[in-house]
């Protein structure tokens, strides 16, 4: 599932006339960066939720040919439903089994990849290492030292077995790893939640917080540069970094 229903208020003025998903980085829409990553990793079908400028985004998605796309249209609600609510709303289009969930404001460069040879390693490793017997969710992580566009002090430390220790729970001032906006999760607990609008963050609350306390929130490290594209300045940084490395 690709989460593309956000209002993109931090990205203004670039989102004055378009959804955040259609803001371009390196000549390509943010959502296409993510869809291409998924297609490279072998994903065949994606559910995309829409809300802001939904008609424009739907028209764009209809021309995307690398995988099949189903639309979860949230315009019946006054505001986007957040991560958990969006997944729950899309239940008729999903399956009762682990799903890959991806934000559209995440762009990265894996070590060793080029424009001619993009890498699918990070997403494939994330999914291959997911063990539903031990994990409720497995998150893709980047090193804080190789992150741009992120204004926090880091999200996690990772134990030797891959379990994540959240900085916000332990009270540590910093943490070496950041969540990249991509994870694999069993959606059934989200489907069963009685709320309409809810997120998986903050880490002090249900889902990720509880799973971390139980040792069931795990991580997979992406070796490379991660660019969180959350505002115009971050977009410019990401575009410059892509030009240095993978853009033809």
Secondary structure layout plus pairing:
Layout: E1 2-3, E2 24-25, E3 28-29, H1 30-40, E4 45-50, H2 54-62, E5 68-73, H3 82-89, E6 99-103, E7 106-110, H4 121-128, E8 137-143, E9 147-148, E10 156-158, E11 164-166, H5 167-170, E12 177-185, H6 188-192, H7 208-213, E13 217-221, E14 224-228, H8 232-245
Parallel strand pairs: 1-4, 1-6, 4-5, 8-13, 9-14
Antiparallel strand pairs: 2-3, 6-12, 7-14, 8-12, 10-11
What would you note in describing this structure?
- The protein has eight helices and 14 strands.
- It is globular and about 45 Å long.
- It has 248 residues and is α/β, with parallel strands linked by helices.
- It has helices spanning 30-40, 54-62, 82-89, 121-128, 167-170, 188-192, 208-213, 232-245; strands at residues 2-3, 24-25, 28-29, 45-50, 68-73, 99-103, 106-110, 137-143, 147-148, 156-158, 164-166, 177-185, 217-221, 224-228.
- β10 (156-158) and β11 (164-166) form a beta hairpin.
* SSE string, helices as H and strands as E: EEEHEHEHEEHEEEEHEHHEEH
CATH architectural grouping: Alpha-Beta Complex
CATH fold type: Spore Coat Polysaccharide Biosynthesis Protein SpsA, Chain A
**Biggest sheet record:** 7 strands, mixed
Number of strands: 14
Oligomer: single chain
Integer average pLDDT: 91
Amount of helix: 25-40%
Structural class label? alpha/beta
Tally of distinct domains = 1
Task: Indicate the proportion of strand residues.
Answer: 25-35%
Low-confidence parts, pLDDT < 50 over ≥5 residues?
A: none
Spatial gap, N to C terminus? 29 Å
At the fourth level of CATH, the homologous superfamily is Spore Coat Polysaccharide Biosynthesis Protein SpsA, Chain A
Number of helices: 8
Give the overall silhouette: globular
Strand order of the largest sheet: 5-4-1-6-12-8-13
Radius of gyration equals 17 Å
**CATH structural class:** Alpha Beta
């Amino acid at each position: 599932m690709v989460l593309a229903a956000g209002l993109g208020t931090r990205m203004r003025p670039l989102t004055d006339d378009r959804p955040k998903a259609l803001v371009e980085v390196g000549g390509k829409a943010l959502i296409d960066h993510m869809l291409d990553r998924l297609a490279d990793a072998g994903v065949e079908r994606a559910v995309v939720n829409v809300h802001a400028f939904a008609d424009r985004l739907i028209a764009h998605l209809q021309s995307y040919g690398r995988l099949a796309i189903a639309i979860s249209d949230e315009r019946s609600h006054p505001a986007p439903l957040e991560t958990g609510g969006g997944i729950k709303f899309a239940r008729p289009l999903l399956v009762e089994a682990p799903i890959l969930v991806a934000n559209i404001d995440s762009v990265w460069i894996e070590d060793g990849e080029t424009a001619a040879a993009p890498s699918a390693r990070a997403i494939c490793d994330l999914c291959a290492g997911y063990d539903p017997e031990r994990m409720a969710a497995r998150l893709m992580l980047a090193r804080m030292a190789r992150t741009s566009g992120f204004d926090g002090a880091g999200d996690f430390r990772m134990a030797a077995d891959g379990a994540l220790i959240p900085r916000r729970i332990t009270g540590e001032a910093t943490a070496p790893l950041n969540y990249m906006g991509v994870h694999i999760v069993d959606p059934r607990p989200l489907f069963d939640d009685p709320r309409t609008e809810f997120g998986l963050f903050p880490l002090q609350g249900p889902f990720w917080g509880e799973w971390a306390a139980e040792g069931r929130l795990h991580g997979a490290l992406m070796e490379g540069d991660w660019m969180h594209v959350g505002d115009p300045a971050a977009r410019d940084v990401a575009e410059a970094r892509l030009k240095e490395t993978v853009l033809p």
